[in-house]
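S1.2 Input.
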Amino acid sequence: MAKTNYSYEKRQRDLAKKKKKEEKRLKKQSRTAGPEEVSAEENAEAPTSAAEAGELDTAVDERQTDE
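S1.3 Output.
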């Protein structure tokens, strides 16, 4: 009968723990990300030029003054 390779099993457990810890760290980081750290999805929705950003700001200002 073959002898169990405990060191291999331990290595696999350790790798799984590290992977899970890294995933949790990334999830926590994305949850607490500030305005500087914008994900690729949010970045795609953001205005691409300063002119577009200015247009968006004026549209918001107009809504506020109409009320």
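S1.4 Remarks. The chain has a mean pLDDT of 74.
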